[in-house]
Amino acid sequence: MTVKIIDPHIHLFSRKAGDYHWLKSDNPPFWSDKKIIQRDFTPHDLTLSKGMMLEGFVHIEAGFDNNKPWRELDYIEELASENARTIAAINLVDSPADFKIKLAKVLSYSSLVGVRHILDEQALSILSESNTQANFSQLNEIAHLIFELQLPLAEESSNEVMSLLTKTIADNNQLRFIINHAGFPPRDPHGKQWKLWQKNITALAQYPNVFIKCSGMEMIDRQYSLAWFSDVANFCLLSFSQYRTMLASNFPLCLFSKESYNAYWQDILASNFIKQLDTKEKSALLYHNALRIYQRTNE
How, if at all, do strands 84-89 and 112-116 pair? Predict the structure, then answer.
């Protein structure tokens, strides 16, 4: 039986067309293995072996041109099929007037389903900005729009961040927030940080407009084990249920840990986490949830 996959978190690169400041060797992050991904990636790289079928994907902004985020959407729509969805870059701290102009421009693209401003270690300062809250209100007015939520949920400073974040989520309950990379769970599933991560995941799961993607494990540990992945995914599933949890690849960054896109999905399907799921649960996490959550507003 063929396993159908919609991958809700991939990045395609065209270094000639885009900027990709972060991808250049002279700029942070200074990963020793950055050269693995310092090339172009197109949908042709998303090949799967017999028994798996890629039915669609969501391209997440990759720093193509953050000042003119529509340029990245032009690039993706030129090369991708109708089964592709896009998440555009957006600057939450722009003036509301500038934000409105840029938002209107990216919303004109047929593939666009949401936006992202990477919060990461700047989460507290970004969420504290008055412009940010005004701009979230603008996003909240767009039916079915998604905000991709990327920040670590196991940091000591997370209490203050969580207070601002949960208020933002509650105040914008028509906007769908999707946690990227499972909130960067810590390596040690027995330590203090793991308990903090669990606490914050549990808190965010209480909001029905929050969803989670299990991906990006290589960003925490290049040699992560499938047992650790299963621990992470199990807790996300327990917290968010089978209806608000998705599995994704973070391609091409998954190549830091796996030899190919196909190898990544083969390992995921071989994990104890997947083996414990029934047919309906497996289909939800690999295909149906992404199909439902990332559908365009006119569908």
Answer: parallel
8 A C-beta contact, residue 113 and residue 85:
yes
Q: pLDDT by residue (tens digit) across 76-135?
A: 999 877 789 999 999 999 999 999 999 999 999 999 999 999 999 999 999 999 999 999
What does the DSSP 8-state code read for residue 41? B
Contact 258, 222 (CB under 8 A): no
Pair type for strands 112-116 and 245-247: unpaired
| Residue 188 domain flag | yes
- For 123-163, the pLDDT digits (tens) are 999 999 999 999 999 999 999 999 999 999 998 777 899 99
Whose tokens are 């089964």? That residue is: 83
Which pTM value belongs to this model? 0.97
Task: Decide if 298 is inside a domain.
Answer: no
Q: How many domains does the chain have?
A: 1
Residue 114, Cα to own-chain centre: how many angstroms?
11
3-state secondary structure of 94: coil
Which DSSP state fits 251? B
- Per the structure, the complete domain to which residue 171 belongs is given by 3-293
Quick check: is 284 in a domain? yes
Please answer whether residues 23 and 63 qualify as being in contact, where contact means their C-beta atoms are separated by less than 8 angstroms.
yes
CA-nearest of 268, 159, 272 to 213 is 268
261, 46 in Cβ contact below 8 A? yes
Read off the pLDDT of residues 260-297 as tens digits, 9 standing for 90 and up. 999 999 999 999 999 999 999 999 999 999 999 999 76
Query: Which CATH number characterizes residue 244's domain?
Result: 3.20.20.140
